[in-house]
Automatic annotation (TrEMBL):
InterPro entries: ATP-grasp, BC-like_N, Biotin_BS, Biotin_carboxylase_complex, Biotin_carboxylation_dom, Biotin_COase_C, Biotin_lipoyl, CPAse_ATP-bd
Top-level taxonomic group: Bacteria
Keyword Nucleotide-binding among UniProt keywords: yes
SMART domains linked: Biotin_carb_C
Record protein name field: Carbamoyl-phosphate synthase subunit L
Cofactors demanded by this protein: biotin
Key words, A-Z: ATP-binding, Biotin, Ligase, Nucleotide-binding, Transit peptide
Pfam families: Biotin_carb_C, Biotin_carb_N, Biotin_lipoyl, CPSase_L_D2
GO molecular-function terms, A-Z: ATP binding; ligase activity; metal ion binding
Domain spans labelled Lipoyl-binding: 570-643
Ranges of residues in domain Biotin carboxylation: 5-455
Residue span(s) of domain ATP-grasp: 124-326
């Protein structure tokens, strides 16, 4: 293979990863070309690139997944290579092949390697043959429920059902015992069919006290292969990574060497070229052991969490990708690579930890991302941009590097404390609580850590009522200056001693609430909730219909009562089942006339990688089903109406 300097790149992705790839490409002197959907006309990645091409409407299947349109854009702009980022087309062998046919270099592994690792069952068989330990389980072709249930029993509970074509934690169910198997199987198969068009699953042993430890590998086209050490991604929610770090806490040198060797073997087994990650699950009950880890899967692309590896090795992995793609040998050999300090990454998401981490969309009314020594932020948005329901709601990755793990975690917690996002709800406070959690700091954790401690990690702030009082003061001041005679054109004031007191209704995070306002000589005082300390830092941001109060990484929305608001839930006694977020209705489980009991599953909505079951709020009868399975539904859309029995 001859080397060919690549002078231009089309980045077939969006968001933070597109921006991150463009940054390195520019540093290497390459011309950069962005592609974008109609929803992303004003996106940061478009602004950063030298050239940009519209490839279609907002939904990913109509734009970022359109191989034909992306290749057309590459041809039109003379792009010499295409970087796929992660997600979207990055692990589609047909895309890699289509690039080759068009004479454009695909910055990634050969299509054959992507294909070999694409299905988890085949990948396990392949690497097992190369001597890599794999999780015990059934990964054969038979899919009949009785057979799989028998296999699960033979493996021994708990077991994990996984979509063969899976990714992003989709189509995965942990099953504790035989009684739960068939329901879990049906739901995993349905999720797999919807997400991947392939309902097949495998069943494997659920490793106890599991630690997710993965190895970054890199191969060139000249037969050289190295690993760039491990990342520990055990802090997960619903099998998805939340915080990642490198190196893994408590990693003995012998285990690191054994895992590194196994990962390189797995890569070599498929003729790998470029950046890849071999994911292992380790039994963490007794610390990490050379015989206590098993191959789970290989991700044949750049990983979301690659910055922690960059931080501890000092190498730019995207630069390595471009060098390998242009036919050069690897920039370093194994002996030339070393670990410097410790790095940790937190994924900052527009989601609502207080409501099941549902994605939260809308305009970013304010955005201040942290800067400072040892802190790196990768983002794809700016203040004023909108988080849409069409794509992954990640706002940024915050990465902290330090000489020690403690220093890195201190820096992360401190950086998160200085992060301010107004508009959509975010997980900032949750991430900060994680970075400060004593057991995590001590290195005592596994993949169940977040679920076990969820209520602690999402506990309301002790400053909440003080933050609300500050918000009401701001609201009153704002309203007072905008409308003479306000607050809310006081009707129900009353005099108490010296001070005039007034009950002040307002809307708190969408729910009606009341405070008491007293007007003394020095102006208004607000009484609301419990006496509590003022938050250390607090920001009040104006929003079109009220204010947003930000304190401790949490956001509280306050507004004057809306004179036109109608309390629908009240009127229909909770009989209307609405879509809790934008998504796809994957199943409707009831029909008009059906009798249902409180808690019964009525429908399933899928959004952002996950299924959410909608259950009956009370006993009743289905009066109407207003939507069909397969349909996209908007947040708040009425799906099902129940008439509830009034036995009283
Ligand atoms: P990684 O294994 O690289 O950490 P995850 O497991 O978090 O990635 O996510 C799995 C998949 O989910 C990714 O390969 C990608 O397909 C998708 N994904 C995650 N984040 C995004 C994003 N911001 N945009 C598009 N796709 C994403
Ligand atoms: P995906 O393609 O969705 O990333 P993985 O096979 O990598 O699927 O698994 C995702 C996560 O599920 C892992 O990071 C790990 O936390 C958990 N997991 C996977 N396999 C097992 C197992 N056999 N035992 C325990 N946990 C597992
Ligand atoms: Mg995985």
């Amino acid at each position: 293979m001859t080397t060919r300097r690549l002078a231009s790149v089309l980045v077939a992705n969006r968001g933070e990863i597109a921006c991150r790839v463009i940054r390195t490409a520019k540093r290497l002197g390459m011309r950069t070309i962005a592609v974008y959907s109609e929803a992303d006309r004003d996106a940061l990645h478009v602004a950063l690139a030298d050239d940009a091409h519209l490839i279609g409407p907002a939904p990913a299947p109509d734009s970022y997944l359109r191989i034909d349109r992306i290749l057309e854009a590459a041809r039109a702009t003379g792009a010499e290579c295409i970087h796929p980022g992660y997600g979207f087309l990055s692990e589609r062998p047909d895309f890699a092949e289509a690039c080759a046919e068009a004479g454009i270099v695909f910055v990634g592994p050969p299509a054959s390697a992507i294909r070999a690792m694409g299905l988890k069952d085949a990948a396990k068989a392949l690497v097992a043959a190369a001597g890599v330990p794999v999780v015990p389980g059934y990964h054969g072709a038979r899919q009949d429920p009785d057979f799989l249930a028998a296999e699960a029993a033979a493996i021994g509970y708990p077991v994990l059902i996984k979509a063969v074509a899976g990714g992003g934690g989709k189509g995965m169910r942990r099953v504790e015992g035989p009684e739960g198997f068939s329901d879990a199987l049906a739901s995993a198969q349905r999720e797999a069919q919807n997400a991947f068009g392939d309902p097949r699953v495998l069943v494997e042993k659920y490793v106890l006290s599991p630690r997710h430890v993965e190895i970054q590998v890199f191969c060139d086209a000249h037969g050289n292969a190295v690993h760039l050490f491990e990342r520990d991604c055990s802090l997960q929610r619903r099998h998805q990574k939340v915080i990642e770090e490198a190196p893994a806490p408590g990693m003995p040198e012998a285990v690191r060497a054994a895992m590194g060797r196994a990962a390189v073997e797995a890569a070599k087994a498929v003729g790998y070229v470029g950046a890849g990650t071999v994911e292992f699950i380790a039994d963490g009950r007794d610390g990490l052991r050379p015989d206590g880890f098993w191959f789970m899967e290989m991700n044949t692309r750049l990983q979301v969490e690659h910055p922690v590896t960059e931080a501890i090795t000092g190498h730019d992995l995207v630069e390595w990708q471009f060098r390998v793609a242009s036919g050069e040998t690897l920039p370093a050999d194994q002996a030339g690579l070393a670990i410097h300090g410790h790095a940790v990454e937190a994924r900052l998401y527009a989601e609502d930890p207080d409501h099941g981490f549902l994605p939260s969309t809308g305009p970013l009314r304010a955005l201040q991302l942290p800067e400072g020594e040892g802190v790196r932020v990768d983002t794809g948005v700016r203040a004023g941009d909108r988080v849409t329901p069409f794509y992954d709601p990640m706002i940024a990755k915050v990465i902290a590097h330090g000489a020690t793990r403690d220093e890195a975690l201190d820096r992360l917690a401190e950086a998160l404390g200085r992060t301010l996002v107004a508009g959509p709800k975010t997980n900032v406070a949750f991430l900060k609580a994680l970075a400060e959690a004593p057991d995590f700091r001590e290195g005592r954790f596994d993949t169940g850590f977040i679920d076990r401690d969820l209520s602690l990690l999402t506990a309301p702030s002790p400053h909440r009522d003080a933050a609300i009082r500050a918000g009401i003061r701001a609201l009153v001041a704002r309203d007072g200056s905008a409308r003479s005679g306000s607050p809310w054109d006081a009707a129900d004031g009353f005099q108490l001693g010296e001070a005039r007191r007034q009950v002040l209704p307002f809307v708190l995070d969408g729910e009606p609430a009341e405070a008491v306002l007293s007007w003394g000589a020095s102006g208004p005082t607000v009484e609301y909730g419990a006496a509590c300390p003022e938050p250390a830092s607090l920001a009040v941001i104006d929003a079109p219909n009220g204010v947003l109060v930000l304190a401790g990484g949490r956001q509280i929305a306050l507004a004057p009562p809306d004179p036109f608001a109608v309390d629908l839930d009240h009127i229909d006694q909770g009989g209307t089942i609405k879509a809790p977020m934008h998504g796809r209705l994957v199943a409707v489980l009831v029909a008009p006339g059906d009798r249902v009991v409180r808690g019964q599953r009525l429908a399933v909505v899928e959004a952002m990688k996950m299924e959410h079951a909608l259950t009956a709020p009370s006993d009743g009868t289905v009066a109407e089903v207003a939507a069909e399975a397969g349909q996209q539904v908007a947040e708040g859309a009425r799906l099902i109406t129940l008439t509830t029995e009034d036995v009283a």
